[in-house]
Amino acid sequence: MRQSLDRILKSGTPDGAAHLVEIREILEPEIAALAAARADDQDLATMREAVSVMDSARHDPEAFIEADLDFHLSWPKQRRTPSFCP
C-alpha cells in the first residue's frame, strides 16, 4: 500500500495529490473506527488529545501536522492489529 501511495505522489501527475486525498478519505474513517472500537480508556484519551490539538491548531500548520501524526501513529497500538503497524 505504501509503495502504491508513493507511486501516486511521485508520478508527477497533477491529480496525484487529489487521488491520495480520495484514498485517505475512503480508508481512514474505517481504520479510525476499528482503532476506536478496539481501544481502551488510555487509547481513547490519546486519540481525543490529538484531535483536540488538531482542532485548536487549524491556523498553525506545524502543530496540526504534529498532532495529526501523533493521532495516526497511535492507531496500530489501538487496533491491536499487527499488519497495520508502521
Distance between the termini: 12 Å
Q: Low-confidence parts, pLDDT < 50 over ≥5 residues?
A: none
Q: What's the average pLDDT?
A: 77
Number of helices: 4
Count of β-strands: 0
Radius of gyration: 14 Å
Question: Approximately what portion of the residues adopt beta-strand conformation?
Answer: under 5%
Shape: globular
The major sheet is characterized as:
none
Q: Helices and strands, in N-to-C order?
A: HHHH
Helix fraction?
over 70%
Q: What is the SS-derived class?
A: mainly alpha
Give structural notes:
With 86 residues, the chain is mainly α. Helix content is 78%, strand content 0%. Helix 2 packs across helix 4. The longest helix is centred in the N-terminal third of the chain and has 23 residues, at 16-38.
Which secondary structure elements does this structure contain, and how are they paired or packed?
Layout: H1 2-10, H2 16-38, H3 41-56, H4 61-79
Structural key phrases:
mainly alpha, 86 residues, 4 helices
Short description:
This protein is mainly α and 86 residues long.
